[in-house]
Specification:
Blueprint: H1 4-9, H2 13-24, H3 26-32, E1 35-41, H4 49-65, E2 73-79, H5 95-99, H6 119-133, E3 139-142, H7 143-149, H8 153-161, H9 163-170, H10 176-181, E4 185-187, E5 200-204, E6 209-214, E7 217-222, E8 228-230, H11 232-243, E9 247-251, H12 255-268, E10 274-278, E11 281-282, H13 299-305, H14 308-316, E12 323-324, H15 330-344, H16 349-353, H17 356-360, H18 374-384, H19 389-399, H20 409-426, H21 437-449, H22 459-475, H23 479-490, H24 499-506, H25 508-519
Parallel strand pairs: 1-2, 1-9, 2-3, 9-10, 11-12
Antiparallel strand pairs: 4-8, 5-6, 6-7
Helix pairs in contact: 2-4, 9-12, 11-12, 14-15, 18-20, 21-22, 21-25, 22-23, 22-24
Length: about 525
């Protein structure tokens, strides 16, 4: 067990949020003897990394809660699959199937992939399959199932009884035209199956019915058993109420919605959950990642290039800072993951609580010793011309003869990731610099200086030699430009691993040959 003093001292954000939750929801939690956390998913498009991020981060809070409370915890992953399909996503086949079913609940829209009963069910299954790959513990809840089964009926009746109060909360936030037609309840058209946004003519609270004005015609509809669904902000409050939710995190863009939903649940007679607003994920252009656009990097793409744990680490870091999420961020994320594992070996208990990998691995930091960074491994893929895992392992063992593959499961997977990432993301984009006369002289001096080095030298000593050559060849005032020159000529990139460490692993003679080969045609 962890020393309680260290738990009290740590300011790692999962512990901060867990303590806040227990403080704010103390009476509610004690009364029901359970802690319920919720994550939301809108299945109007394929699940993306932002969706995963909510579950991963919420799971980290549950891990922190396990050190603070013995009460059972449950993560509800809620799919808003009763929502009407507003537009056709850009990244799906057979778009005409969706075009013909716009505005119907997602569980009533045909599956364009032709695998499941509906588009909503397809996307729900995609989400569950992915979360299961990560071994997340969660309870999946479908909006359609809970509406149609009658689970929400009592709360829907309560909302109807508080209709005027809810209108008084929502109406001031709407434009004048929208105010004229707004209703918290949206009937499902009995003829077309479309979710209608039409004004209310009359309430029949006693019979749990509403009479709507459907373009001049009266439409009498029960609010129970999925005949109506609620508008988003009211629906969110209903979920919190009916599922007795204690915590939910949400994107910064939903802060105003959370404020209104909090007012509504208080009107209904319960307090709102503890909340956590995180910053949004952006693509390489700085635009918000969208399910319907399919921009940014997908879950499957990340897992082609790096481990699930590296993705979890990316989710852990700075959740209240906007982050770009695209293919080129992967190597840095992997290297940071490896670095945190190394740091964990010498950290005390309090420091480990601040180590992101402690939270990624549910309190158990891996003990595997690091062989090299992912960035260096990518350079080895190029310099060795290895196109398969076995060949690259053979190359690694040539210079690290004492390595046992079975003792390095993380690195073993890293080799496959590096080959895939190099071929997909780096190979075609490499631009090798042709050095000018003075640059060529400096690089030739580097080759000559390596005559005084051998493979038994420490990487730091080789690095010192490289520094010295740079200083003696015009780079004394800006060694960054010296290393940039080396990387651009040798690797075709502006940045890379510490070159002394690369030489130590790759071999002194092999590095001399590599640099000479790059200078031959200059």
């Amino acid at each position: 067990m962890i020393d309680k003093t260290n738990i009290d001292k740590t300011n790692a954000w999962p512990f901060v949020e867990a303590k806040k939750l227990l403080r704010e929801r103390k009476n509610n939690i004690e009364n029901k003897g359970k802690i319920i956390l919720q994550t939301g998913y809108g299945p109007s498009g394929l699940p993306h990394i932002g969706t995963f991020g909510e579950v991963a981060r919420t799971s980290m809070i549950v891990n922190a809660l396990n050190y603070l409370s013995d009460l059972p915890k449950e993560i509800i992953t809620f799919s808003d699959d009763m929502d009407g399909l507003r537009k056709v996503p850009e990244n799906i086949p057979n778009p005409e199937k969706l075009e013909e079913n716009l505005h119907k609940p997602l569980t009533q829209v045909p599956d364009p992939f032709e695998k499941f009963n509906s588009f909503g069910e397809h996307n729900n299954e995609m989400l569950k399959n992915f979360l299961d790959k990560f071994n997340f513990k969660y309870s999946f809840k479908s909006s359609s199932v809970l509406y149609k089964s009658g689970f929400f009926n009592d709360t829907l009746k309560l909302i109807l009884e508080n209709y005027e109060g809810i209108m008084n909360i929502i109406i001031p936030t709407l434009g004048k035209e929208r105010q004229k037609t707004y209703s918290p309840f949206l009937p499902i058209c009995p003829d077309t199956g479309v979710v209608l946004e039409i004004p209310v003519s009359e309430l029949d609270t006693k019979n749990s019915k509403i009479i709507f004005d459907n373009n001049g015609k009266k439409l009498e509809q029960s609010i129970l058993y999925g005949n109506c669904k609620l508008q988003w902000k009211v629906d969110w409050a209903m979920r919190w109420y009916a599922l007795d939710v204690d915590f939910e995190m949400y994107g910064k863009d939903l802060i105003e919605s959370a404020i209104l939903s909090s007012k509504i649940i208080k009107l209904l007679g319960k307090s709102n959950p503890s909340g956590f607003a995180y910053e949004l994920f952006l693509d390489e252009k700085g635009e918000k990642i969208s399910k319907s656009k399919g921009n940014g990097i997908t879950i499957d793409q990340w897992l082609e290039y790096a481990s699930p744990e590296s993705l979890s680490l990316y989710m852990y870091q700075n959740p209240k800072r906007a982050k770009k999420l695209y293919r080129e961020v992967v190597p840095k994320a992997v290297d940071e993951y490896l670095d945190f594992i190394e740091k964990g070996k010498t950290q005390n208990e309090l420091q480990k609580l601040m180590n992101p990998v402690w939270h990624v691995h549910n309190s158990e930091i891996p003990e595997e010793n690091s062989i090299m960074s992912f960035s260096m491994l990518l350079n080895l893929v190029e310099t060795s011309n290895a196109d398969n895992k076995e060949l690259l392992w053979k190359f690694v063992k040539k210079y690290k003869k004492d390595i046992n593959e079975d003792m390095h499961p993380i690195f073993d997977k890293l080799i496959s990731y590096a080959i895939k990432y190099f071929n997909d993301a780096i190979k075609s984009k490499k631009i090798y610099k042709k050095p000018n006369k003075n640059e060529k002289i400096a690089l030739e001096a580097l080759v000559n200086s390596l005559d005084s080095c051998d493979d038994a030298m420490k990487p730091e000593d080789i690095q010192t030699t490289i520094y010295t050559v740079g200083k003696e060849n015009g780079y004394k005032e800006n060694l960054r430009d010296w290393f940039k020159l080396i990387y651009e000529v040798v690797f075709g990139v502006e940045n890379g691993p510490r070159f002394g460490f690369f030489i130590s692993f790759f071999g002194v003679q092999e590095t001399k040959k590599l640099i000479k080969s790059k200078l031959e045609n200059v």
